[in-house]
Design goal:
Blueprint (H helix, E strand, L loop, with lengths): L7 H33 L8 H32 L7 H28 L7 H55 L1 H19 L1 H20 L5 E2 H16 L7 E6 L7 E2 L5 H10 L5 E9 L2 E9 L14 H13 L4 E7 L3 E8 L3
Parallel strand pairs: 2-4
Antiparallel strand pairs: 1-3, 4-5, 5-7, 6-7
């Protein structure tokens, strides 16, 4: 014979549907009875037992009906207004209907019952019958609604966070995509001129170009080992050298300890790309990456023409602004980035903090 199991959710539903109403009614009855006995000097244990049983039975029936109507009222509000509407206007409307529901039930059931028991209806009976159940119903409302509104608040926060995350991911993809067109144009232009001068060199450039595209298009995991990013930069630098002036003096230094540390891809590319784009004067470019106290430090320097052309790069260029925005999104409070003209050229330094 198969065994049946009861989930915690089902147990919770059974409690609120079948066990809570009589407990609620018992608390209401005990409070009213205590107040009446205190005022009148009666003792409920001295009453005939059948009267107490009748009182409890009537109170249980009332509590089942009232709790069912109360839960229906809350479901009606949930259907009428969205769950994320946590305004005080909604709470006031709900409290008004809770008050109205209490007045209807109390005067339709409890008041007539009290009028035909014991010594009939007294003014304090009317006050107790209309006050005590209302107070407990407000407490019940507060417990139920606090749980509902808390869930709605958390769900709204999660949805807002998801929307923000999706927006940031879209912005990151857009910023990263802005690097590609310029790179593609330069690479294809280089290969085009190599075809007339050195076919073998053009083939090597196509091979390196394909590796760069493969990295950009297919190997874009969330993060990559920094050694993989450095290998990509090395291919990019070699491809750029083929189209650079023979006067170019290039110095590269990559720390061999940079290996499995995880970085987001294509952060270093705009700095290297700009150095090749704007190099002039002494035609010197220096590129270095090292591991310092657990942090990755990347630096690019290049000489610039003298006098400086009016259209020369500034530290407010689009590429650098895009890089700053990506760093703010990917490494909030975990990076330092500086870029600007120096006495002999232009310098950019980026530090990714891991400690």
């Amino acid at each position: 014979m198969p065994l049946t199991t009861t989930t915690p959710e089902k147990k919770n539903s059974l409690f609120w549907k079948w066990l809570f109403p009589p407990l609620y009614g018992l608390v209401v009855y005990a409070t009213i009875r205590l107040l009446l006995d205190t005022v009148t000097g009666m003792r409920f244990w001295r009453r005939p037992l059948h009267l107490t049983i009748e009182d409890l039975t009537a109170c249980f029936v009332f509590s089942y009906l009232f709790v069912a109507a109360f839960r229906w009222l809350l479901r009606w509000f949930d259907r009428k207004w969205p769950a994320d509407d946590l305004s005080y206007q909604r709470v006031l409307r709900e409290l008004f209907y809770v008050l109205l529901l209490n007045l209807v039930f109390q005067n339709a059931f409890l008041t007539p019952y009290a009028a035909f028991t014991d010594d009939g209806m007294q003014w304090y009976d009317l006050v107790d019958v209309n006050t005590i159940p209302l107070l407990y119903s407000l407490i019940y409302y507060g417990i139920v609604r606090s749980n509902t509104f808390l869930k709605a608040y958390i769900a709204g926060k999660i949805q807002l966070q998801q929307i923000t995350t999706d927006k940031l991911q879209t912005e990151l993809k857009f910023l990263k995509a802005q690097y590609h067109p310029h790179f593609l144009f330069n690479a294809l232009n280089t290969i085009y001129f190599q075809m007339d001068e050195d076919v073998a060199a053009a083939k090597r450039s196509v091979e390196k170009f394909s590796e760069l595209l493969r990295y950009q298009l297919y190997d874009q995991q969330q993060t990559v080992p920094v050694s993989q990013e450095i290998h990509y930069l090395d291919n990019f630098i070699r491809l750029q050298q083929t189209r650079s002036s023979e006067k170019l003096l290039l110095e590269t230094e990559f720390d061999p300890r940079l290996d499995t540390q995880q970085v987001y891809p294509l952060l270093f590319l705009p700095l290297v790309e700009n150095a090749f784009k704007y190099v002039g004067g002494e035609y010197h470019i220096g590129i270095s990456a090292e591991l310092n106290n657990g942090n990755i430090e990347f630096r690019v320097t290049n000489s610039i023409p003298t006098p400086i052309p009016e259209n020369s790069r500034s530290d407010k260029g689009i590429g650098l602004e895009n890089l700053r925005r990506r760093l703010e999104l990917l490494y909030p409070n975990k990076h330092t980035f500086t870029a600007g003209k120096t006495q002999n050229g232009f310098s950019a330094a980026l530090t990714l903090q891991y400690s």
